[in-house]
Design a protein that fits this description.
Elements lengths: L1 E6 L27 H15 L5 E6 L2 H6 L4 E3 L5 H11 L10 E3 L5 H14 L6 H11 L1
Helix pairs in contact: 4-5
């Protein structure tokens, strides 16, 4: 399968040292099969870094080969309470690295980000409670 990475620079060999913490799936190299999402991410990176271009790099990936090689893979088919807990924990500044090599699932766009921020403000320290996370998923879906 062909996957895309949007950035302000051309990426030939991903370097995890260049990746930042606090993202939905933790520190890692993010890919998408959606060309529009890749372009939007490239525009965002260019704006954040104030340099470079809008560049979409292409990669070949085989999930079957990743599974055969024994990589730990976590999949979220859609927005669920488990997904919400996972991304909210990863977004914490002091988040511990998770045990997965590959995480597959939806990431929050700007609309979902706004809903998450409102939700966290409403629920405060109880934002990771299952009942409250169910309310978050209801708002997103």
């Amino acid at each position: 399968m062909k996957l895309l990475h949007g950035s302000n620079v051309d990426v030939v060999h991903p370097d995890l040292m260049e990746c930042h913490d606090g993202n939905d799936f933790g520190k890692g190299f993010y890919l998408t099969d959606n060309p529009l999402r890749a372009v939007l991410m490239a525009k965002r990176k260019k704006l954040l870094r104030h340099k470079g271009g809008i560049i979409v790099s292409k990669f070949s990936f085989s999930l079957k080969d990743a599974e055969k090689s024994g990589l730990k893979i976590l999949r979220f088919k859609n927005f669920t309470v488990e997904w919400a807990r996972f991304i909210l924990q990863n977004r914490c500044p002091d988040a511990a690295a998770h045990e997965y090599d590959i995480v597959i699932g939806p990431v929050a766009d700007s609309t979902v980000d706004s809903i998450i921020e409102e939700y966290k403000a409403q629920y405060g320290a109880a934002y990771l409670d299952d009942k409250n996370l169910t309310n978050l998923i209801d708002r997103i879906s």
